[in-house]
Amino acid sequence: MDNKLDIVVFGATGFTGKRTIPYLHKLCEEDGRQLKWGIAGRSEEKLKRVLGEYAQKLGADSLNSTPIIIADVADELSILAMAQKTKIVLNCCGPYQLYGEVVVKCCAMTGTHYVDVTGETHFQDIMLSRYGNTAEEKGVYIVHGCGMDSMGVEMPMNFITKSFQGVLNSVEIFMHRLEDQTGTGSALNFGTWSSIVHALSDLKSVWASKRATSLPKMSPSCSLRFPFSRNASIGIPNKRILPFPSPDEDVIIRSQSYFYENGGKRPIQVRHYYLLDSWKSILKLLFMGMITIIFSQFSCGRKLLLKYPKVFSGGHFDHESPNEEVVENTKICMYFYGKGWSNKKDSQFNQPPNKSILGKIDIVNPAYGFTCLAVVLSAIIILT
Question: How many domains does the structure of the chain reveal?
Answer without folding.
Answer: 2
